[in-house]
Amino acid sequence: MSVLAETSLNMNVADFSPKLPPYREFYELLLKVSSFYENSSVSYRPSDRLGNPGGLLDFRCKNSAGQGGTYKRNLPLVVVPDLHARLYFLKNILFFKLPVNFVCDECGNALSVVQALEKNLIRLVCVGDGLHSEARGKERWLKAWDEFGKGRWSGKAMKEEMAEGLALMKLVMECKCHFPEAFHFLKGNHENIESLEYGGDFPFHKFVQESFMTRRFIVDYYGDDILYLYSGFEKDLPLIALFDNCIVSHAEPVRAFSYEELVDCRVLPEVVQGLIWTANGTAECGNTEKMLSDFTKNEDSVYFAGHRPIFGKYNLLNDARFIQIHNPEEQNVVLVYPDRKFNPETDIVCVENAEK
């Protein structure tokens, strides 16, 4: 674990084992991460119509200074697909040694992702979906449903499922606290701990009633206060990120949204739903091309999203400018170089063997 030892990241996660966070530690972490979101810099996260941090991250360098006067550097970008309770995936990402032509230290030495984050030499954006192991945990979900039928809201199977998901999200929150301007996690459709059906959110279920079960577990195991704080964390999450050469959101936008809609999207249910729930083939034709034309000045810019599973490293749509990157069977991340055209064959890399 020497890579993390060289950073300020809290070492109580060094074993990276899926454990349910203790109540007090989890409570304090939720309060801490919320304060970081509440104090997001308007230089990259403009305020919405209510005066709160908006739903848009804007890291474009088209102006020499951001809204708050902070200079925006066109840094190398790492895009992370849906995590889905894969703590080992995020661990491997943090330990992954980046190519020296992507980023390196002042002596030209290779850096791991976590070292580059520590030095503010890269940005990292996760497309969301932290909880729910999906197909990997199907049998466990079925066992948990059987436990629910017997009145056991936090039985063995459900504890195992939630240990994976919450241990992952604990690490996500710690990364956000330690690298607040470099590490970002977008809201996906699984960021719905209260199992809501309004505001652009809908309960998620694939095999049983996973959304309801997740909420019931949190209340039974931790209590209403943790449910409230975790829900607040989810509501603080941005939904889309703009860069000079790409756009990133959880799902394909259902239509082309305006800049004002993206800033205000956390209070616009249609926009929330249209950025996290879009099914293949349901988006308006030309939507991503329109947004790329509106928000980027690079004719080679591309739009990245996860949400819908794919086979292989990527799936190209819309004249190869919309790129789906979520393969739940692989541990791939996207490297977006600031000074060259994106190449999906070479710039989507596997991190699986980053550290044994």
Explain this structure.
The N and C termini lie close together (10 Å). The chain is built from twelve helices and eleven strands. The strands form two sheets. It has a six-stranded mixed β-sheet with strand order 1-5-6-7-9-8, with helices on one face. Strands 4-3-2-10-11 form a five-stranded mixed β-sheet. The protein has helices at 2-5, 23-38, 87-95, 113-118, 138-149, 156-178, 210-221, 224-236, 259-263, 269-276, 287-295, 344-347, and strands at residues 56-58, 77-80, 123-126, 183-185, 240-242, 246-249, 302-305, 315-317, 322-324, 332-336, 348-350. Helix 5 packs across helix 6 (156-178). With 356 residues, the protein is of the alpha/beta class.
Secondary structure: number of strands? 11
Structural class: alpha/beta
Indicate the percent of residues in helices: 25-40%
* Average pLDDT metric: 92
Q: Could you list the spans in which at least 5 consecutive residues all have pLDDT below 50? A: 63-71
Note the gap between the termini: 10 Å
What's the short story on this structure?
The chain has 356 residues and is of the alpha/beta class. It has helices at 2-5, 23-38, 87-95, 113-118, 138-149, 156-178, 210-221, 224-236, 259-263, 269-276, 287-295, 344-347, and strands at residues 56-58, 77-80, 123-126, 183-185, 240-242, 246-249, 302-305, 315-317, 322-324, 332-336, 348-350.
Task: Chart the SSEs and their pairings.
Layout: H1 2-5, H2 23-38, E1 56-58, E2 77-80, H3 87-95, H4 113-118, E3 123-126, H5 138-149, H6 156-178, E4 183-185, H7 210-221, H8 224-236, E5 240-242, E6 246-249, H9 259-263, H10 269-276, H11 287-295, E7 302-305, E8 315-317, E9 322-324, E10 332-336, H12 344-347, E11 348-350
Helix pairs in contact: 2-6, 2-8, 5-6, 7-8
